[in-house]
């Protein structure tokens, strides 16, 4: 058993001070991921800093027409918030496609961004894993890799980011607001999570002394044409094999703007803005959707058990775009 101490932070500045001055300390929010990792001996923090009492649990309108989600708002309260449901239904759908009601009641928006991969080997401390123990190797590359990445992989790690919420946030061009010892900064969602490269143990560009305070949604919510399609082994309580967040603006049958983000295929929510641009100004036809799907998976690489994901991703992109175009049936 690993012993650890527990502190409850009362304001953001003291929370930041706690982790900035003690590298063995970590924040705990809903605890739905961190406690599991501690039980499996994957995470062994010496100190937990409970941030659940910080005043970061509100959803507020922004002056530019956007919406600010406090980092401690639960996934449930976000998904069922009236503004989110009406203006950002893509986000609401993506959140409700994940986990279970009980988990979503505990899970926070900040914690969702920082949840760790579900790679089986990452959780199995008897096996080599560069993400858990840098330099030990990757058991998944030549192992059972059915759930693993096909895009943006490295020879160090082929894990995927497991979040559904983050896929929608990527499509919506959300911005992550953080505070550290040197003050506040805003991180565009595309720059928040990292590809594995040579340092797969580092999941994000959040500084070691920083806390997520909020997630800002830009005014454009794509409420008229959207779909979140999640393909998984069971229809509930399962992580995505492939998921697609599709958000369109349309003028009649013509697409005027397209956003596509994929989950379950890479170490971060996957965007390919060049491929998205292929849809600008074209009619919403299956041929165009297939061409975009083809472009997105062009550089994909399978590792054996997960090679089926290449075709699956292409088909899921087409299906999600069809749902988003027609808005029926909704994904
Ligand atoms: C059985 C199961 C099934 C699941 N299925 C899905 C699914 O299908 N789809 C999906 O998307 N998710 C799924 N999840 C994951 C779940 O959504 C996450 O565990 C949850 O969102 C994490 O939030 P939390 O508040 O509990 O984070 P915690 O476990 O408290 O923290 C997670 C990490 O974030 C850090 N942290 C938390 N808040 C902050 C902050 N504000 N600033 C800086 N660091 C912070 C912590 O230090 C920790 O490292 C599932 C989880 C379980 C257990
Ligand atoms: S894919 Fe990444 S997380 Fe999984 S075993 Fe390899 S290094 Fe570890």
How would you sum up this structure, described in words?
With 331 residues, the protein is an alpha+beta fold. Among the domains are: 5-53, Uridine Diphospho-n-acetylenolpyruvylglucosamine Reductase, domain 2 (2-Layer Sandwich), CATH 3.30.43.10; 226-324, Enolase-like, domain 1. It has 13 helices and twelve strands. It has helices at 12-20, 34-39, 75-79, 82-87, 89-96, 101-106, 109-114, 120-123, 165-171, 189-192, 273-277, 286-297, 308-326; strands spanning 5-8, 25-28, 47-50, 59-61, 67-70, 175-180, 183-188, 211-217, 226-231, 242-251, 254-263, 270-271. The strands form three sheets. A five-stranded antiparallel beta sheet has the order 4-5-8-6-7. The protein has a four-stranded antiparallel beta sheet with strand order 9-10-11-12. Helix 5 runs antiparallel to helix 9 and helix 12 (286-297) runs antiparallel to helix 13. The radius of gyration is 19 Å and the shape is globular. The termini are far apart. The relative contact order is 0.13. Bound molecules: flavin-adenine dinucleotide (FAD) and iron/sulfur cluster (SF4). Flavin-adenine dinucleotide (FAD) is lined by residues 26-34, 36, 51, 71, 75, 98-99, 103, 106-108, 110-112, 114-115, 162-165, 211-212, 239.
């Amino acid at each position: 058993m690993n012993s650890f101490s527990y502190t409850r932070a009362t304001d953001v500045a003291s929370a930041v001070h706690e982790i900035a001055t003690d590298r063995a300390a970590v924040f705990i929010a809903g605890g739905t991921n961190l406690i599991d990792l501690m039980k499996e001996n994957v995470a062994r923090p010496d100190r937990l800093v409970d941030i659940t009492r910080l005043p970061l649990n509100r959803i507020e309108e922004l002056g530019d027409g956007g919406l600010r989600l406090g980092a401690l708002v639960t996934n449930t309260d976000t998904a069922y918030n009236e503004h989110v449901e009406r203006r950002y239904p893509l986000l609401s759908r993506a959140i409700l496609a994940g986990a279970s009601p009980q988990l979503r009641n505990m899970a926070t928006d900040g914690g969702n961004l920082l949840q760790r991969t579900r790679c089986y080997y990452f959780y199995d401390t008897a096996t080599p894993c560069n993400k858990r123990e840098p330099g030990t190797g990757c058991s998944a590359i030549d192992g059972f890799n059915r759930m693993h990445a096909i895009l943006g992989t490295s020879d160090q790690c082929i894990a995927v980011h497991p979040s559904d919420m983050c896929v929608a946030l990527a499509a919506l061009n959300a911005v992550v607001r953080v505070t550290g010892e040197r003050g506040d900064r805003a991180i565009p969602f595309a720059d928040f999570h990292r590809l594995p490269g040579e340092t797969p143990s580092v999941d994000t560009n959040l500084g070691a002394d920083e806390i997520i305070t909020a997630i800002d949604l830009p005014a454009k919510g794509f409420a008229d044409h959207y779909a979140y399609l999640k393909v998984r082994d069971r229809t509930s309580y399962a992580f995505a094999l492939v998921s697609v967040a599709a958000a369109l603006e349309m003028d009649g049958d013509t697409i005027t703007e397209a956003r596509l983000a994929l989950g379950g295929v890479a170490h971060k929510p996957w965007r390919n803005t060049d491929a998205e641009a292929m849809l600008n100004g074209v009619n919403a036809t299956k041929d165009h959707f297939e061409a975009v799907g083809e472009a997105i998976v062009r550089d994909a690489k399978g590792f054996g058990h997960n090679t089926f994901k290449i075709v699956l991703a292409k088909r899921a992109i087409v299906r999600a775009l069809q749902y988003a175009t027609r808005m029926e049936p909704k994904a």
